[in-house]
Amino acid sequence: MKPSLYVLGAATLLTVAVCARPDSHESRYRVTGSSTLAPVLQLVSEHLDGVGADFSMDVQTGGSSRGIVDARSGLADMGMSSRDLKPEEREGLDVRAIGFDGIALIVHASNPLSAITEQQVVDIYTGVLGDWSHLGGSGDITVVNKAEGRATLETFLAYFELDNQQIAADVVIGDNAQGVRLVAADPKAIGYVSIGEALSAVERGTPIKLLALDGREPTLQAVQDGSYPIRRTLYVFAQQFDARGERILDVLASDVGKGIIESLSFVPVPSSEAR
Amino acid sequence: MIERGTRAHWAAVAAAGLLGGLLVPGVVLFLLWESASILFGRPSALAGLQWYPLDGLLGLLPLVAGTLLSSLLALLVAVPLGLGTAVALRYHAGTAAQRTGDTVLGVLAGTPSVVYGLVATSWLLPHTGASLASAALVLAVMVVPTFTLLALAALRQLPGGLMESGTTLGLSRSQVIRRLLLVVARPRLAAAASVALARCLGEALAVEMVCGNVAGLPSRLTDPVRTLTTTLVQEFEYAQGEHRAALHLVALVVVLFAAAATSLALHFSHKRLLVS
Amino acid sequence: MKALALLCAALVGLAFVVLAGDIIARGVAALHPGYLTEGVRDAGRAGGIAPVLVSTLVVVLVSTLISLPFAFAGAVLCSELLARRPALSRVFRRSYDVMAAVPSVALGLVGWTVFSQGLGLGFSLLSGSLTLALMMVPIMTVGFLVGLDSVPRALREECLALGVTRWQALWRQVVPAARQGLLAGLALAVGRATAETAALVLTSGISTRMPASLHDPGATLSVHLYHLSRNVPGGEGMAYSAALALLAINLAIHALLTRLRGRRILPI
Questions:
Q1: Is the N or C terminus of chain A more exposed, i.e. has fewer CB atoms within 10 Å?
Q2: pLDDT at position B185, please?
Q3: Domains in chain B with CATH codes
C-alpha cells in the first residue's frame, strides 16, 4: 500500500502548499522589462525594504519589449525599458525617463589607441578597415557587434547611420557584461557597450579602456550634459502610477535614487518629468 | 492478465504514464502554433542564407549549419576521450578510483552551462577566440561526462565471463578489450554517443559565450558560428511579431534534431548484443 | 592501449581540476561566515544567498515530488503493462527519450506560456517547479526504465507462478531489484534540475527575496548565478561564489547517492 500513501501524502502536501497564499502576495508591486534596468529597480526595492515600506517590489527581467507589453496588458504594474518607446507603444502609458546610459567604444587595455573618429568606427564596422596597423597597432581587428533587438545595437546603428546588414562582425554578443568580457580577453577586439558597464569594469580592474569619440571623452558628466553624443534614455512606465508607483518614482528622484543610478554608472535625469 | 482487485491501481498507473507520453506531442503542437504566422505566412523565407530578423531575413540555414558543425565536431573530440576514460575506469582502476571517477563525472554533469561558459571565456577565448573551435571544445567538455557515464554503464553490463574467456584463449587484456568487449558493447556505445549528440544539439548558454554568434557558414575552425539554440537565448527576450514566431520555429527545429538523435540512440540500443 | 585510456582519463580529470579550481579560486574571495545565512544585498553583489538556497531547495523538492509518480507510472507502463506489446511500448519509450533531450530553452517558452500565463501563476516557484517537472519526468522515466528493464523477466513469472498478484510482485520484488537504476534515474533528474537555468529565468524569476509561499518568485542558485554574471555590473565575483556553493551542493548530492547505491561499483 506504499504507493498510494505516497501519492496521498504528496498530493495533500502540494495542495496545502499551493493554496497557501499569504496576503502580502497581493500587494506585491510587479516590475518587468529591461535587464539593464533591473539592477536599478532591485536596489530601489532593497531600499524600500530597508525603510519598512508597506509594500514590496517584485522585479523581473524579460527585456524592454516584454516590459512594455506587460505594462500595457496589466500583467506588470510597472515596466522598464532601455530603448525608446514607439508611438503606438506609448498609447495609454505614463512614461517617465529616469536616466541616461551612454554607449562607449571599448578596446583592450593594451591597445595603443585611446581616441577614435566617427569615420574610423564606420570603416571598422563595415569591414573597410580590417587591420589595426592603420591605427597604431597590429593584427586583424576583431569586430564585436550586438545581437538584434538590443537597444544598444539600435542606438549604435542609428547614430552611425548604418544598417545591421552592413556590419561585418566577427563576434555578436548578447549583453554588455559579455561584451566587456570578450574585449578584455582579446587584445585585438573593439566593441561598444553601455558606459555604465564599461566604467564599472574599469573600476574593478578589468583590462579594457574606453575610447574618446571625435575628441569627446566618455565620462558620466559628458553623458549628462550631452557633450558625449551617443546615449540612450532609460524609462519606467505604467498605465497609471498608484501610491506605490509614486513612492518608487519619488525614491528614484531623491538623492538615494540618484545614488543608486550612479552606483551602476548610469546618469540620473535632471527632472523626472522628462519624456 | 491483471487480477481483479488491482485493476484500479493499474488503471491509475496507466493514466499517469500516458500523460508523460503526451508531453512531446504537446510541446511540438505548442511550438507549431506559436510559429504559425511565419510557417504558413512566409515559409520560403526560412530557407534563406541570412539571419537579420529585424530586416525580415529569417533564413535558418546558417543556424542549422552552426548547430550541426559544432555538435559533430564536439562529438569527434568527446567520444574518443570519453571512451578512453570509460575503459580506464572500468578495466584499469581500483574501487576507490572508480568511485572518485563516478563522483567527478557526476559533478561535472551537474554543473550548469553558465559556469562552463564563464570558465571557457577565461581559459579558451584567449587561445582559440570566439569561434567554431571554441564552441566545439566547450561542448566536448560538457558532453564528455554524460557520454563517459553511459559508456561505463554499457561496459559494466557486459556479460562477466567475456574477459576471462578472452584471456584464457591467450589474448592480453588490451586485446580482449579492443577486439572483443568494445565490439560487443558497440550498440550501447553508439546509443550513448547519440544521447551525447542530443545534448550537444540542445546546449545553449555555454556555447553562446564562446562561439562568436555571427550567423553565417564558417569556412575555417577559427570563424565564428551561431547555432539554433544560441539564437534563441540571445534573441528571445527581445523578439516581437514575426521574429518571435520564427524563434518558436527555431525551437521546434532543435526539438526535431534532438528527436532524430534520440531515435538514433534507440535504433542502436535495440540491436541485440552480438553475444547473448 | 592502456596508456591511451589512462591519458584520456587524465585529460578529463584535468578538465575537472581546471573547472573546480577556477570556481574555487574566484569564488572563495567573496565568501564570509554569513554567506549561507544572510539575505541578498546590493542586487546580489553583497550579503549572502540564504533566500536563494531556500528557493532552490523548494523548487527542486516540489518538482521532484510532482515528477516521481508520473515518471514511475510511465516506466511501469512501458515495462510492465506494455510488455506484451513491444511496438506500443517502443512508441512511448521513444517519446520519453525525445522529451528528455528537448532543450531547456524550449521548455522555458512552454512553461511561461502554459503555467505562468495560462494558469495565471506569473513568476513563481510553482510555475518554475511545474516547468522543471516537464523536464524531469522524461529524464526520470528513462532512468527508471533502465532499472526496471534490468530486472529479469523470469522474476515476474516466478512470482505469478507462486500466486502473487502482479501488483504485489511489482512492489515487493521488482522495485527492490531495480533499486540501483531507480536511484540513478532520480539522481540524474535531480542533478539536471539543480543545474537548470534557462527554463527557470522565465518562470520562477530572478527575485532574491526570501519566498513566503509557492506563489512567490524566487531565483534558484543557477538563475542567481546567471543573472549576476550577465546583468549586474560587477556581479561576476559573487557569481563565482554562487558557482562554488553549487559545486559543493553537487558534491554532497553525489556523495549521498553513491552511498545509497551501495558498494556495487566493483567490476562484475
A1: N
A2: 83
A3: 51-269 (1.10.3720.10)
Residues of C in contact with A265 (CB under 8 A): 233
Amino acid at A2: K
- ipTM value greater than 0.85: no
Is A171 within 8 Å of B214 when comparing Cβ atoms? yes
Does residue A64 carry a pLDDT above 90?
A: no
A190-225 pLDDT, tens digit each? 999 988 889 888 988 899 999 999 888 888 888 888
CA distance B208 to C139: 25
Which grid cell sits at A3?
A: 504507493
Binary contact (B239, A149; C-beta < 8 A): yes
Q: Which long-range contacts (CB under 8 A, 24 or more apart) does C6-9 make?
A: C6/B84, C6/B88, C6/B92, C7/B84, C8/B80, C8/B81, C8/B82, C8/B83, C8/B84, C8/B85, C8/B87, C8/B88, C9/B84, C9/B85, C9/B88, C9/B89, C9/B93, C9/B101
Q: Are strands B51-52 and B57-58 parallel, antiparallel or unpaired?
A: antiparallel
With beta carbons under 8 A apart, name residues in chain A contacting C62.
14, 17
Cα–Cα distance measured from residue C153 to residue C157, given in angstroms and rounded to the nearest whole number = 7
The set of cell numbers assigned to A209 is 579602456
Q: How many CB atoms lie within 10 A of CB A16?
A: 10
**What is the model's pLDDT at position C151?**
78
- How many CB pairs below 8 Å do chains A and B form together? 78
- pLDDT of B227: 93
SS3 B243: helix
Angstrom distance (rounded) from CA C116 to CA C122: 4
A43 near C42, Cβ under 8 Å?
A: yes
Which range (B73-77, C11-15, C194-198) has the least confidence? Answer: C194-198
Give the nearest partner residue to C213 out of A20, A39, A43, using CB atoms: A20
Q: What is the rounded average pLDDT of the residues B185-214?
A: 87
Q: Name A29's bridge partners.
A: A57
Which residues on chain B are in Cβ contact (under 8 Å) with C196? 112
Å between A149 CA and nearest CA of chain C: 16
The grid coordinates listed for C27 are 569564488
In whole angstroms, what is the distance from residue C220 CA to residue C223 CA? 5
